[in-house]
Structure formats: C-alpha cells, structure tokens
Amino acid sequence: MANLSNNITAFLNFLAFMCSIPIITSGTWLASKPDNECIHWLRWPIVFIGIAIMLVSLTGFVGAYWKKEGLLGVYLVCMAILIVLLLLLLVLAFVVTGPSGSYMVPGRAYREYRLQGFSYWLRDHITSADNWGNIRACLADSGICPRLNNQYVTAEHFFAAHLSPIQSGCCKPPTICGYQYMTPILWTNPTNAIVDADCSIWNNDPSQLCFNCDSCKAGLLGNLRKEWRKSNLILIITLVILIWVYLIGCCAYKNTLTKPHSKK
User: Which biological processes are named by the entry's GO terms (predicted)?
Assistant: First the structure.
C-alpha cells in the first residue's frame, strides 16, 4: 500500500508538473496583452503561480518516487501554501471581475462600457488619478487605435465590428454623443455634446482620442475582466488537481513515516 500510494503521488505530481505548462503559457499570453502591459503589477502573477506549481510538483515527484521523507515534508508545506494562495487569487478574481459594466448600443455590433458598472476595487486600484496618467500614456503609445484605420474603411463595416472593450472605449467617442463617423479614429459634428462628460473630452488628435474618458477606463477594465475570466477556468481545473494531489501526498508521507526500516 505504501508503494502504491507513493507511485500514485509521483504520477499525480508529474501530471501537476505538466499542468503548469499551460498555466505559464496562459500567464505569458495575459502579460503580452496591451492592457496588462500597461498595468505592470498585473502582468506576471499567473506566470509566477505556474512556475511555483512546476517547482513544487517536481519536489513532490522526487520525494514520492524515491521515498524521501524530507522532500515530501517540504513539498506538503509548500503545496498547502500554494493551494491557499491560488484559492485566494480565484476568490479575488471572481469578486472583482463579477460586474461587467457593458451595455448594448442600438445599431452597433460592439458594446460600450460604463465605469460605474465595474467593481469599486478595480476602479480604485487601476483607474484612480494616481495610476491613470501612466496607463493612459502607455495605451496611447501602444498603437491599438490607429490600427483600426487599416481594418475598417466604411461606417457600415465599422459599426458591424466586434471591437474589443479598449477599442470601443478609447478609440472612439461614446455613441450617445452623436458624433459623425469619418474614420475609426476621426469623428466630427456631435449632435448631443453635453449629454456626457466624455463627449467634450473626445479629441481627434491620435495621441488624445478618448484616452482621458471614463469610457476608456471602463474599456480597460472590460478587457481585464474578459481576459482574466478566461484564465480563471485554467486556474480552477489546476486547483482541483492540486487538492487531490495534496491529499494523496499526505497519505504517501504518512506511509513513508510508518514504513519499516531495515536493521543494520
């Protein structure tokens, strides 16, 4: 039974080791997105978690396969900490990314976004006055808006596009302002310029556009929510696997401690 438990633990830790690869890949994908590039402290947490899972799983595999009591002990402590941290990250991610802040616009395929529709924590930590200046400059330098000119030529084509939240919030004025389409980033003659503060903030200068608008801040949060929701699915599957690996690892550690030692 001891050998069976150890072998199962070794196999499951090898499986957890392999699971760390898509987690690291997912984290790298997140870090490469324009919004995460502009929010440095959000760029690498999933990558770090993937690397930690890889190292801890390798420790558990070696400890179980070669029946090393010390390594198994270290592995169990580190795995318990990792599971708690991963659980806390998932709870935080689901709580702060719950509200979407999006709404449909008549005659448009894309959605638009209200800043008040997102969680207070996200708004306070990402779009506050202390943080937005650097984020705004980073988004303006990313070139995400000028690229729309190469993708959409006519107004009909543009209005039928499924824009990303950042493109919808930062690269054009809110639809309610009544601006007339010229190009994806050139709009003129608003018919309802006082209905929303963002209407007067819009500027056709490619370095300005709506990067100072609340709709742009909301678009950034919409992008973050969409991307992190995709990554959460991978993290949930990983957490379930890690809990099973940990429970069986506890059995393997107990069996290792109680196995008969040969007498010299």
Answer: auxin-activated signaling pathway
Q: Are residues 116 and 9 in the same domain?
A: no
Q: Are residues 107 and 211 in the same domain?
A: yes
**Do residue 95 and residue 116 come from a single domain?**
no
Residues with Cβ within 8 Å of 26's Cβ and at least 6 positions away in sequence, in order, are 46, 50, 230, 231, 234
Instruction: State what percent of residues in the chain have pLDDT above 90.
Output: 41
Nearest Cα to 214, choosing from 151, 136, 158, 146? Answer: 136
Tell me what percent of the residues of the chain surpass a pLDDT of 70. 90
CA 139/CA 129 separation, integer angstroms: 15
Q: Which of 58, 62, 49, 71 is nearest to 16 (CA)?
A: 58
Clarify whether residues 126 and 232 are in a common domain.
Answer: no
Q: Is the pTM of this model over 0.90?
A: no
Dist CA 51 CA 45 (whole Å): 10
- CA-to-CA distance for 120 and 180, rounded, in angstroms? 33
Identify whether the C-beta of residue 19 lies closer than 8 Å to the C-beta of residue 60. Answer: no
List beta partners, residue 104. Answer: 111
Q: Which two tokens stand for residue 255?
A: 């069996």
In tens, the pLDDT along 93-143 reads 888 888 889 999 999 999 999 999 998 888 888 888 888 999 999 999 988
C-alpha–C-alpha distance, residues 12 and 95, integer Å: 30
